[in-house]
DNA sequence: GCAAAGTCTTGACGACTGTCAAAGAACGGG
DNA sequence: CCCGTTCTTTGACAGTCGTCAAGACTTTGC
């Protein structure tokens, strides 16, 4: 498992980078705990216990709990942004793009279940805690753009055009994905296959030839 | 404001009914607080404070916190089940059904924002707390059937058939609605209109003439 | 009208939370 | 090597949480 807190080849890190690396290391550890327990049940002490640090260190690098969570969310954002970009860039046929998209979708559903659970949790929490709202909105925007890149490229390869706007397309795909995440949490059996079947059902309806 | 704990005209209530009425009154009060604060920030004392009862009463009628929340969820379920049934039964043309559906959808978005926020919160929590899972799954099932009644009736009035299965249709509609609820929580301006526009965009694509 | 059952209030408990401050360790420049 | 800065540990704080129990009040059955 690679850590983002690796030192440079020179063995030294500049001061500002060092504290940034600590923050990243803490965020990664916190995300692991958050994904396991959810926002409500995760305490700073629990985060510290599941890491190599003590609970005092957390407060040395983050002003308070919201600051930490907020940082985690922003850090997480950078990871899921370009998850599908490779598929979009390499696919040369509609089928290839569709298959690649579905494959990546089920892969992330299975391999990063905890992160997705956490995302839907945090999005719900943002409706009650306005301090989370800005970060959540930003991630939603990012995901919407990602879906739009896929859909418009898919239409382009078919010599067609998307028949819905970006926000609608994202809401539809997200609805299917969240359903799969909830179902997967309840019983992993068959959830990925059902997701593939349903997305495959819907995707052709979102373009006009 | 009518309470579900009204006494019968005779002024007496049977023993079993009385405790059931208390539970309902407590659940309604709890739902108000839950919708305002969300699952994580709602304590039993807060529920009691926002009601006419003391915190001891809560524990007299409910074994523990999960028992109360679970009861609230089941109680809430019965209210949203037949929300759209009237529209389905009275509409005689596709446009009438579509318009009625959209009108009810935006109405409940605006008037019952808190309840919807709570629902998406609880569904997310159910992925971490398995005690909530059964109730959440039951409600999801109910909502899926509701959407299916609308869509299949809509298709019927058009002399057509739905082009997606019930689970897919529900996931799509739910994705659009959740997007609207989140957007509405952030900024109520225009969210209902955007929801109408998007659902109107999608609905025709879910049937094959 | 009295005893028994049911209902409610009050106060307490142990555990947990976020936050902070003071003491200690590690480190780097002089 | 030593001293000042940076980092870390530890322990404590005030508050809140869910839970429970002992007693007071109310209703019911006879």
UniProtKB/TrEMBL annotation, chains A, B:
> What highest taxon heads this organism's lineage?
Bacteria
Domain HTH tetR-type residue range list: 20-80
* Gene Ontology terms for molecular function: DNA binding
Pfam families, alphabetically? TetR_C_6, TetR_N
What positions does the DNA-binding region cover?
A: 43-62
- Protein keywords: DNA-binding, Repressor
This chain belongs to which protein, by name?
Answer: TetR family transcriptional regulator
Which organism encodes this protein?
Answer: Kribbella albertanoniae
């Amino acid at each position: 498992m690679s850590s983002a807190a690796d030192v440079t080849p020179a063995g030294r890190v500049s001061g500002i980078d060092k504290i940034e690396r600590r923050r990243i290391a803490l965020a990664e550890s916190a995300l692991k705990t958050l994904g396991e327990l959810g926002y409500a049940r995760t305490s700073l002490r629990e985060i510290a216990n599941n890491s190599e640090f003590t609970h005092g260190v957390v407060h040395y690098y983050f002003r308070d709990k919201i600051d930490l969570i907020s940082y985690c969310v922003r850090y997480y954002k950078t990871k899921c942004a370009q998850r599908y970009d490779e598929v979009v860039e390499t696919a040369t046929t509609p089928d290839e793009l569709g298959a690649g998209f579905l494959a990546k979708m089920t892969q992330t559903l299975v391999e990063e279940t905890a992160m997705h659970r956490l995302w839907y949790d945090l999005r719900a929490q943002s409706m009650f805690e306005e301090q989370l709202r800005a970060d959540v909105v930003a991630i939603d925007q990012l995901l919407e753009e990602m879906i739009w890149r896929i859909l418009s490229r898919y239409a382009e390869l078919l010599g067609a055009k998307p028949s819905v706007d970006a926000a609608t397309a994202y809401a539809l795909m997200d609805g299917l994905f969240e359903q799969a995440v909830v179902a997967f949490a309840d019983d992993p059996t068959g959830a990925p296959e059902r997701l593939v079947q349903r997305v495959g059902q819907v995707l052709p309806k979102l373009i006009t030839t």
